[in-house]
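Hi R.,

Here are the chain sequences for the assembly we discussed:
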Amino acid sequence: AQSVAQPEDQVNVAEGNPLTVKCTYSVSGNPYLFWYVQYPNRGLQFLLKYITGDNLVKGSYGFEAEFNKSQTSFHLKKPSALVSDSALYFCALYSSASKIIFGSGTRLSIRP
Amino acid sequence: SQTIHQWPATLVQPVGSPLSLECTVEGTSNPNLYWYRQAAGRGLQLLFYSVGIGQISSEVPQNLSASRPQDRQFILSSKKLLLSDSGFYLCAWSVGTGGPHGPQHFGDGTRLSIL
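And here is the predicted structure of the full complex:
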């Protein structure tokens, strides 16, 4: 069965430090992976996707994600965190028939 | 460019009352359309999705229904709301022919409170 997991409910980082939000997946066949961000009382915003090709994918707002096939992971990263990066982050996996499976979300808190 | 509109932004309804939430997409044709519910600011539950006019797939049995009367219009309804229907409802669209390459794009949601 296909699934996606975000093992951390919350990640706390000091402003200016690098951040990582973890995601692992399980799928038979090629994985198609996405990261989204959600600010309070808003819909999800698409950040980046991995379809094929380079294992390091660059996205919006300075975020990037590293695809690792052997570890079945797709971690979201940013070299230097901003307070404005504080939000809820979702990893997602393409399922079938144009459906996407979302992880449970990780709340990222950046302290000044 | 493509835009998605959802309304109302917030709604307070009594138990047993009907519901109609509307979502429209502009700037694209034959999109895939989705309704999600998000509880307590966490994970998303897919409720319905549609790949074309009049084509609705239901993911979970529940008190809700969906319709797609026009290509870019998606409506979520209920005849009688339950307390458990409270939540944050999100509409989304993706390119109809995008397959796995197409991300979903979300509206700003409707926060529904049932009293």
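The interface with chain A takes residues 6, 32, 41-44, 46, 49, 51, 57, 90, 92, 94, 96, 98-109, 111 of chain B (CB under 8 Å). Chain B has a mean pLDDT of 91.

Let me know if anything looks off.

Best,
T.
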